Amino acid sequence: VQLQASGGGLVQPGGSLRLSCAASGIIFSTYDMVWYRQAPGKQRELVAAITSSDMTNYVDSVKGRFTISRVNAGNTVYLQMNNLKPEDTAVYYCNANRSLGRYVYNYWGQGTLVTVSS
Length: 118
Known about the structure:
This protein has strands at residues 2-6, 9-11, 17-24, 32-38, 45-50, 56-58, 66-71, 76-81, 90-100, 103-108, 112-116. By secondary structure, it is mainly beta. Strands 2, 4, 5, 6, 9, 10 and 11 form a seven-stranded mixed beta sheet that branches. The protein has a four-stranded antiparallel beta sheet with strand order 1-3-8-7, with no helix packed on it.
């Protein structure tokens, strides 16, 4: 299983970035997909999630600014980030998870760095 995150970079406050996470080795459409982030010196936090049935959820601090979406045909999940703030600076990780009976499947990507600074 591989989750390949990309799209991070340096952006000024108020700018936008789109993160992508391409999955392989899983039946992508059956997995819930989640973006997490970890800022320096802080714990990893859930940013946005999209279920296999396209239900979405966001941490309060990004509601109205970030949008998570998925394209099952392309095995890819996206995170559109608008009106970025310095406090959004973090390494962003994608996660794929599902439960099947008593089994839990949980996979992580390698992370992509987002830096918001003027």
